[in-house]
């Protein structure tokens, strides 16, 4: 095994229509892991991760900023530094309601690229 290190600043990532810049640290385009994906999102003021669901269980770690997090039928305000667990197949979203960009780390399993990224790019999620 070779020790591999990746810097967030070296990853181009993607700008999504709902108002965020996401970069995969572990997974496609980043370090390789068999069972999970980890990434970083910078959610712009007024931006969001639209309401969606997927088979992957997931954790959002809010590093900074203030947002409104919905998981299933519950909505709560979240701020850095906090974490939210999202069970498999449960709808969830995160909207930046603060006056500065929000930074989060997301971790989900199993590994792979979740469908909602492409759905958002195609305008199917708002």
Pick out its properties.
126 residues; mainly beta; four-stranded antiparallel β-sheet; 1 helix; 10 strands; 5% helix; 48% strand; globular
Describe the structure concisely.
The chain is mainly beta and 126 residues long. The protein is 5% helix and 48% strand.
Average per-residue pLDDT, rounded, comes to: 92
- Low-pLDDT runs: none
Helix percent reads: under 10%
Distance between the termini: 42 Å
Number of helices: 1
Describe it for me?
By secondary structure, the protein is mainly beta. 5% of the residues lie in helices and 48% in strands. The chain contains one helix and ten strands. It has one helix at residues 116-121; strands spanning 14-16, 20-26, 37-43, 48-52, 57-64, 66-71, 74-79, 82-86, 92-96, 102-109. The longest helix is centred in the C-terminal third of the chain and has 6 residues, at 116-121. The mean pLDDT is 92.
Which helices and strands occur, and which strands form pairs?
Elements lengths: L13 E3 L3 E7 L10 E7 L4 E5 L4 E8 L1 E6 L2 E6 L2 E5 L5 E5 L5 E8 L6 H6 L5
Antiparallel strand pairs: 1-2, 2-3, 3-10, 4-9, 5-8, 5-10, 6-7, 6-9
């Amino acid at each position: 095994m070779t020790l591999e290190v990746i810097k967030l600043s070296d990853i181009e990532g993607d700008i999504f229509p709902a108002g965020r810049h996401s970069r995969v640290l572990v997974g496609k385009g980043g370090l390789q892991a068999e069972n999970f994906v980890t990434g970083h999102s910078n959610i712009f003021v007024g931006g969001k991760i639209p309401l969606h669901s997927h088979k992957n269980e997931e954790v959002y770690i809010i590093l900074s900023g203030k947002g409104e997090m919905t998981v299933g039928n519950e909505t709560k305000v979240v701020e850095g530094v906090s974490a939210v667990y999202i069970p498999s197949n449960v709808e969830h979203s995160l909207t930046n309601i603060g006056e500065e960009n929000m930074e989060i780390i997301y971790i989900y399993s199993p590994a792979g690229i979740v469908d909602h990224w492409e759905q958002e790019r195609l305008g199917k999620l708002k």
